[in-house]
Every structure is written in C-alpha cells, then in structure tokens.
Design brief:
The chain is α/β, with parallel strands linked by helices. The protein contains 21 helices and 14 strands. The strands form three sheets. A seven-stranded mixed beta sheet has the order 7-6-5-8-12-10-13, with helices on both faces. It has a four-stranded mixed beta sheet with strand order 1-3-2-4.
C-alpha cells in the first residue's frame, strides 16, 4: 500500500509540474503576443504582479542569499571542525568543553570567552568525578586544563552561523491559552508533553464555559483558571505574572490550543535561541490536512491556507528573518518562543487591540530587543477554520489586529519601516486592483451571459463595449486566473496532493475575500476599539 501511495503521489506531482509549466508557457506567450497585439501587453504583466507581488519576489531573492550564506558557513564549518575525542572513565559521564590553549595560559576561561574569541572547541566526554574533582585547579566548574563544564546538550558555537549541530540547554515554559477549547485542548497538551516535562506546561483557561480546565487538570500540568474573560493577551499576561515564568525560565513558548508541535520543534527552537541576538523564534506553521474530517469548504480552506503559508514562509519570511535583514513584522502567536529577557520588556496586553502577536512583534522591533529567527525545523500543525464564516471572522480579526498595531505604534525611523512601508502599499494596491478587476470581469460576464436583453439596458451596452476595448475578457481570464492556478499546480506537486488541482479552481475567490477584508479593516482600526476577548470558532478534535 505504501508503494502504491508513493507511486500515486509521484505521478500526481509530475502531472502537476507539467500542468504548471504548460500554464506558464501559455501565459508568457499570451503576454508577449496576443495581449500585446490587443494593446494589453502591459496589463498582462500587471496581472502577474497581482498574482505574486513585488515584495514576494524581493524577499525570495533575499532568501536565496541567506541560503547561499548558510551553505558557505556549513562548508567552512565542516572543513574546520576538530575531531571528537573520547576519554574513558567511569559509567557516569557528562559533557565538558576543552578549550585549546587554556592549560598553557593558566587563565580562567568563561563561556563568553569561548564564544567571542573564536577558539577551536573540542567536545569530549569525561567522568563526572574527574571533571569536578580537586584537580580542577580552583576554577569553578572547570578541570585541570581550564575546561568549562556544561550541562547535557550544551555546546559553544565554533562560528557565528545560525544554529549548530547540537542545541543549547535552554529552559522553556509552555503556555497554552484556551477559551472553550474542549475538543482540542487534550491534543495540544499531549503534543507538548511529548517534548516537555509536565511541570513546565502551563494551561490558562480564560473563563471557559466547557470542560477545558478540567481536561487540562487531569493531565497533571499546571492550570490557571480565570473567572473573567480577559482575551488571549490578558490570559498570557496573567499566567506569566502568576507563575513568574520570565524569572524562572530562559524562554516562553506560546502554544495555541488547536496546534500540535512537531517532534523536532524543541530541538530547532533551542538551536536558534543559542544565538544571544535572537529575541524570538517564529514558529513555522503547517496547515493540518485531514480531508476526511472536513466538508468541501473545509478542505478548500485548508488547501488554500497551505499554499498561502508555504508561499509566505519560504518566499518572504525566510528572507525577512535573515540576520542581515531582520525585518519580520509577525511572530505568529500559534507556536512561537520568546526569550524571557525580551518578553519582560514587551507590553503584552495593551488596551484596544483585538489580537496580540502583531503588537508583540512590533514591540520587539521598536525597542530593539533582538532579532526574530525563523527556520523550517520549528514546525507546528495548526487547525484551520472549518467554515467560510469562521474563516472570514478569523481573517478579519487578524487583519484588524494588524492595522490596529500600525495605528498604535506609528512610524519610526528604522530599516523595519523602510521595508514595511512598501509592503503596506502593495497590500492596499493589490487588494484594490483585484477587487476592481474582478468587478469589471463580473460586469462583462453578466453582459455576455445575459445577451441582448441585458445589453439593451441604458448605458450598460456602451459600458461593456468600453471595458472590453480596454480589457478583453480573455485578458481578464488569463491574467487573473492562470498565474494563480500555476502556483497551485506547483503546490500540488510539492505536497503530492492532486486534490489541490480541484480546490485551486476556487482559490481566486478566496483571495478576493482576503482583499476585501484587508481594505475593510483599515478604517475600523482607527474608529473602533477592541477588547481582545475570544470569539471561539467551530473546533474538531485533533486527536487521532
């Protein structure tokens, strides 16, 4: 059965790849010949911009540079890596670091010296008794050679690259804020307990009316139950203060109740937090794909979100979170880690905001608390809305929260705003043009389908003639649909999900919903105040 599925997925990927290539060739031929002959060549390229966007292309190029730098660093690191030596001894052993030349210099060596001086470090194993014995020469935590003992899994970087082969031992608390999450809370807790001790997991039930708190309590994790609905930001603020989490842990992971962590999440997060410049690790979101549990609308939403997340994370946020750019404007609130020293400086729950994650990210950037890191090894699986109604509410809330954050923080001189401003401009222009172009297309379509009775309506026929002279129906169809659907074909190949070829036919209407909500929420952000209280969507158990 596995072989059959593998072959089926491979064939589906090949079909999708061929279809994507054919569509692109067709579009390119149309843009350079047919559209140009009709006077619409420039318009066809505008459609390409509407499909992909200049910001996406720019940050994709930056992402390629980041990959290139990482490859060079990895190659240099492999070439200069010292050999590992093993020192035999008793059964109980712990990892120590032997710093070259420490014994000869006779000086005390600290972790800071090791990291900043670029000294070659060799990881060895030594017996605990020997490493901690009298022969340590009086250096606390050291040995006769001046080596510095570290706890299990601790390493000091040999270079300044992003991440290392082994994660640093960083203590992390897990916060799971929840409001009426009875169907999914157990799954989120179970995924956390696979990676953390139960005493490091903290569930805060924000005035839940169901069994959320009781289910959490039965698992043995820490549970804080709030009697009044404070919203997610207020719940986070309460649990952090109640348990003094930023004082007792190096980092805090915020995990949504409908999200499950990948097995490699903690290792990836600690690897990134090893860099002292990193203030937050942005989780890498993956849409949960369980088609049998969803209606057609639910599967459409999951497929669309999967394409959206894949595109934004690999082709935009990967470049934005490069150490040389560091201009990311969102640390997603579904599963991300904040360094405690940075979190203490963040106003988590300001008044008037509907969501917290955009504000917390802007706080990081404006106060220059450190950079945001994101890598695909910190994956987590999030449950998307099941209905178009819940989808529209969620997107509207996210968009409103984004514009509210813009209103609250304003503009300040920085590289962050230098790159955020073109993005905002493009979001507004693309949304407006998508809606306007679609409205024109619908205007022409009604005339074509209605025939003479519709065309005879005063001024309607003249309007259709004027629009089609400037924007032929073929240009509308090819310009709007083909580039968008070609991208869907690529996703069907990457995911090996041929069903995306069907759902992709409806992705353009989903984009129109996003565009409408993006524009609608701009005036509301300046005229309405939000209390941040929860609006729980339909949930389905994520336990298998």
């Amino acid at each position: 059965m596995r072989i059959v599925r593998f072959i089926g997925g491979l064939l589906a990927g090949l079909v999708a790849l061929v279809l994507a290539a054919a569509l692109f060739v067709y579009w390119f031929d149309f843009a350079t010949t047919s559209a140009a002959a009709a006077g619409g060549g420039a318009v066809a390229y505008v459609f390409l911009w509407l499909a992909f966007g200049a910001n996406l292309l720019w940050w994709s190029a930056i992402g390629v540079l980041r990959l290139g730098e990482g490859s060079v660093r990895a190659a240099v690191g492999r070439g200069s890596r010292p050999r590992r030596r093993e020192v035999t001894g008793g059964p109980e052993r712990e990892r120590v670091l032997v710093l070259a030349g420490a014994a000869e210099s006779g000086g005390e060596v600290t972790a800071g010296h090791a990291a900043t001086a670029g000294t070659a470090v060799d990881t060895v194993e030594r017996p605990v008794a020997e490493a901690a014995g009298a022969e340590s020469g009086g250096v606390p935590g050291g040995d006769a050679s001046g080596g510095l003992r570290l706890r299990d899994h601790d390493t000091v970087a040999r270079d300044g690259s992003e991440g290392s082969d082994e994660p640093r031992d960083v203590s992390i608390a897990v916060i799971i804020p929840a409001h009426n999450e009875e169907p999914v809370i157990a799954g989120a807790i179970e995924s956390a307990l696979r990676l953390f001790d139960r005493w490091d997991v903290y569930v805060v039930s924000d005035s839940s009316k169901d069994s959320t708190a009781e289910i959490a309590a039965r698992t043995g994790v820490n549970v804080l139950e709030l009697l009044t609905n404070r919203g997610k930001a207020g719940a986070l603020e309460a649990v952090i203060e109640e348990f003094a989490l930023t004082d007792n842990y190096d980092g805090v992971l915020i995990l949504d109740a409908d999200t499950e962590l990948d097995a490699g999440y903690v290792e990836g997060a600690k690897r990134q937090l090893r860099d002292p410049d990193v203030a937050a690790v942005a989780g890498f979101v993956v849409s949960e794909w369980k088609p049998r549990e969803r209606t057609f609308a639910g599967r459409l939403i999951s497929a669309y979100r999967d394409r959206l997340y894949f595109t934004l994370q690999y082709f935009m946020r990967f470049g934005q979170t490069w150490r040389r750019s560091s201009t990311a404007f969102i640390v997603p609130g579904f599963a991300s880690v904040y360094r405690s020293s940075a979190l203490r400086e963040i106003e988590v729950n300001p008044k008037g905001l509907v969501i917290e994650d955009f504000n917390m990210t802007f706080e990081l950037q404006r106060k220059r608390l450190g950079r945001i890191s994101m890598r695909p090894d910190t994956r987590a699986y999030s449950q998307d809305p099941f209905t178009l109604r819940d989808y529209s509410k969620q997107v509207g809330r996210w968009t409103l929260g984004f514009w509210q954050t813009i209103r609250r923080h304003g503009v300040w001189p920085s590289a962050f705003w230098l790159f955020l401003a073109p993005y905002l401009l493009e979001v507004v222009l693309v949304s407006a043009m998508l809606l306007a172009t679609s409205a024109l297309g619908l205007f022409v379509l009604v005339g074509a389908v209605g025939g003479e009775p519709v065309q005879s309506i005063p001024y309607y026929g003249e309007g259709v003639t004027a629009v089609t002279a400037f924007l032929p129906p073929t240009a509308l169809l090819v310009g709007l649909f083909v580039p968008d659907y070609a991208l869907t074909c690529v996703m069907a190949m990457v995911r090996r999900r041929p069903s995306y070829l069907l759902y992709g036919l409806f992705f353009l209407p989903m984009r129109l919903i996003d565009a409408y909500l993006s524009l609608r929420m701009i005036p509301r952000a300046w005229t309405a105040s939000s209390d941040g209280r929860w609006r729980s969507p339909v949930r389905v158990s994520n336990r298998t």
